[in-house]
Amino acid sequence: MKSLTEYLTFKVKTRRAFVNITSDVENLVTKSKIKEGLCLVNAMHITASVFINDNESGLHHDYEKWLEELAPHEPIEQYDHNKTGEDNADAHLKRQVMGREVIVAITNGKLDFGPWETIFYGEFDGRRSKRVLVKIIGE
């Protein structure tokens, strides 16, 4: 069995954003030369997420609105976590909802997606560098 481990680094300029990382992951699958296997992509930070969904701006806006309703950023005093000097408790909760990682099958050397599936990095407490692990295994 072969494997490839790489780290992608993102520094989103805004507090929250969704970044399409599909092409980055596809490039690593090509680099791995693995034809049949699995590709794990996971956020290496507790206020960021990796998820799969449609690359449609209206949906991204809906996510932003929905997540803010579930875990509003302000008032920051509403969260016990923020009493430690942080202001990102909402980002931890948003990450929990959106998930830590995705696993995508590799078939014939390509990510084996369903219709409209795209890999996203979700940032909920940006403006600093964070890593995403890509681990590819197979033959």
Strand order of the largest sheet: 1-8-3-5-6
Poorly predicted regions are none
| CATH architecture assignment name | Sandwich
CATH topology: Jelly Rolls
Binned, the helix content reads 25-40%
Q: Which range does the strand content fall in? A: 35-45%
Radius of gyration (Å): 16 Å
N-to-C SSE string, H for helix and E for strand: EEHEEHHEEEE
In round numbers, the mean pLDDT is: 97
Question: Which structural category fits the helices and strands?
Answer: alpha+beta
What shape does the CA trace take?
Answer: elongated
Q: Could you please describe the fold and organization of this structure?
A:
This protein has 139 residues and is an alpha+beta fold. The protein has a single domain (2-138), classed as YjbQ-like (Jelly Rolls, Sandwich), CATH 2.60.120.460. Helices cover 25% and strands 36% of the residues. The protein has 3 helices and 8 strands. It has helices at residues 22-32, 57-70, 89-98; strands at residues 2-10, 17-20, 37-43, 48-53, 101-107, 110-111, 118-123, 130-138. The strands form 2 sheets. It has a 5-stranded antiparallel β-sheet, with helices on one face. A 3-stranded antiparallel β-sheet has the order 2-7-4. The longest helix is centred in the middle third of the chain and has 14 residues, at 57-70.
